[in-house]
Design brief:
By secondary structure, this protein is an alpha+beta fold. The chain has one domain: Aminopeptidase (3-Layer(aba) Sandwich), CATH 3.40.630. It has four helices and five strands; from the N terminus they run E-H-H-E-E-E-H-E-H. The protein has a five-stranded mixed sheet with strand order 1-2-3-4-5, sandwiched between helices. The longest helix is centred in the N-terminal third of the chain and has 21 residues. The termini are far apart. The model has no long low-confidence stretch (mean pLDDT 91).
Length: 157
């Protein structure tokens, strides 16, 4: 079993570094960004979405900890958005660290987040994942998440 605990500053810094690296690699892999532009693009996105870093309003950063040992198994970042009379979460990133994968911790973290969402009057949770992330896609489907749109691209040069 896991618990979600607010990230410490140190946990946030490590999580943010991994998250940024994974985002850059994903955008390059899918042909959206060139390798040499990835760091600058990521810096722009970070400045836009997290002007106050971990303290940015309506962004939530949780450490995923093993309940019995307290070991840090990963992290979860989502944001609250409101519009047209609805409140929804957008999952920006979830990381389950290598040694803790295939134990159901991602599923447990999502279920805990869904409980928080209900408590906050959130009606929908959305997310983006890279097309080649098959393990995450399987987990999201198992949890009842469904595709809402699909982007496609073809590299021709």
């Amino acid at each position: 079993m896991i618990r979600l605990a607010p990230m410490t500053e140190e946990q946030y810094e490590a999580f943010a570094e991994i998250s940024a690296r994974d985002q850059m690699e994903g955008h390059v892999r899918e042909g959206r960004w060139k390798t040499e532009e990835a760091e600058a693009n990521m810096a722009k996105l970070t400045a836009q979405f997290l002007p106050e870093g971990q303290s940015t309003a309506n962004h939530f950063f949780y450490a995923i900890e093993e309940e019995d040992t307290g070991a840090l198994a990963g992290g979860l970042w989502y944001m609250l958005a409101e519009g047209e009379g609805t409140r929804h979460f957008f999952v920006v990133d979830i990381q389950i660290y290598e040694a803790y994968r295939r134990r159901g911790y991602g599923t447990q973290a999502f279920l805990a987040m869904e409980d928080q969402a209900r408590d906050m009057g959130v009606t929908t949770i959305a997310l983006h994942l890279f097309a080649d992330n098959h393990p995450a896609r399987a987990m999201y489907r198992k949890l009842g998440y469904a595709g809402t749109d699909t982007s496609m691209a073809k590299q021709i040069g």
